[in-house]
Structures are given as structure tokens and as C-alpha cells.
From TrEMBL:
Keywords: Endonuclease, Hydrolase, Nuclease. Signal peptide: none annotated. The keyword DNA damage does not apply. The keyword Nuclease applies. This is Uma2 family endonuclease. GO terms for molecular function: endonuclease activity. Pfam families: Uma2. Residues 18-168 form the Putative restriction endonuclease domain.
């Protein structure tokens, strides 16, 4: 546990030494701790369902999809995305960004700016191949904006809308096809 009482210049070592905070997500943004509250049920449901879809697609290639794992992005950056596809099986609290094939963020009211602007820029700068942003409050249900790395920025490749089933590349040659509406509608 870190006992430092400064406002900034925290490092990955400081971040990884924090005790877990029930009901809170603590990320490291430019050397500052950023704390967000517990996610709404529909947010968690969408993350869990999407992780299952992605994990089923990638596991035979030795990859896995996990929720809420720390990603070591840089000395002063550590994120906890909603879903991460890793290039190998993960047994640690956090994973190095070099072992990340896809990051998925589900936008919440408190994370709009970060999920739409800051995280994609930081993740593209360090070479994460793909970034998906899920907007849960679309008129007809969830909308997923899928981006692939193009140089050092992300380019939109497909937008998944409720009712559509368009294949989208996850990693390498692995793609998935699913209806975004399935991420939050009742299953019974």
C-alpha cells in the first residue's frame, strides 16, 4: 500500500501497490489517480456479455478476454478498461500493454471524455491494435464504434448497431458477429 500524499507524479509501481477499493476503480492518468464509482448494472451486464462473446472467439488461439483488469500503458498511465483481449493467459493484477490486442470501454456519464478522447489517444500512441467504444444509450440500444490502429491513431472500421450482425475483426484473423442489442436485453 502506498502512503504517499502527493497530488501527482505517481507511477505504475504506486498504482499497482494500492489496496483494492471495493466499489471503486482507481486508474492512473498522467501521474494522477482518477477514481470512478461502481458501474451501473447495465454497464456490468454489457461488459460481461461482451467479454464472453470475445473470449469464445479468441480462446483457441491462446488469447483471452477479461473484464476490469489493469493495463500498464506507460510509467504514469495505468488503465482498467471494461474488457481487454490479451494475447496470452493472464494471472496477474495487471497486464503489460504489449500483450493487449483489443481494449473495450463502455461509456458512462463520468467517463465520457476519457473513453472518447483520452484513452484512445494514449492506447493508440503505445500501439494497441484495436479500440472499441460502446455507447449504451443509443436510441435503439447499444452502439459499438470499432476502431483499428492506423499508424499512431485509430481509424473507424465499423459501427455496430442494434439489429445488425456485421463481422468485426478482434485480433489477427479472428472476427466475431453478434447483435449489440444482446449485450443488455433480458435473456428470459
Amino acid at each position: 500500500m502506498t502512503t504517499a500524499r502527493r497530488l501527482e507524479s505517481y507511477t505504475l509501481k504506486d498504482w499497482e501497490s494500492l489496496d483494492p477499493q471495493p466499489g471503486r476503480r482507481v486508474e492512473l492518468h498522467q501521474g494522477r489517480f482518477v477514481v470512478t464509482g461502481v458501474r451501473a448494472v447495465k454497464h456490468q451486464r454489457a461488459a460481461d456479455r461482451l467479454a464472453t462473446i470475445l473470449d469464445d472467439a479468441v480462446f483457441s488461439d491462446g488469447m483471452e478476454a477479461v473484464t476490469a483488469v489493469g493495463v500498464r500503458v506507460g510509467e504514469h498511465f495505468g488503465y482498467i478498461p471494461d474488457v481487454v483481449v490479451t494475447t496470452e493467459f493472464v494471472e496477474t493484477v495487471s497486464v503489460d500493454v504489449a500483450n493487449v490486442a483489443l481494449v473495450v470501454e463502455i461509456v458512462s456519464p463520468s467517463t465520457k471524455k476519457s473513453d472518447r478522447l483520452e484513452k484512445p489517444a494514449a492506447l493508440a500512441a503505445v500501439g494497441v491494435p484495436a479500440y472499441w467504444r460502446v455507447e449504451l444509450d443509443g436510441a435503439d440500444g447499444p452502439v459499438i464504434y470499432c476502431h483499428r490502429l492506423n499508424g499512431d491513431v485509430y481509424s473507424a472500421v465499423v459501427t455496430l448497431t442494434p439489429g445488425s450482425q456485421v463481422p468485426v475483426l478482434v485480433a489477427g484473423t479472428i472476427s466475431v458477429t453478434f447483435d449489440p442489442a444482446d449485450l443488455h436485453k433480458p435473456r428470459r
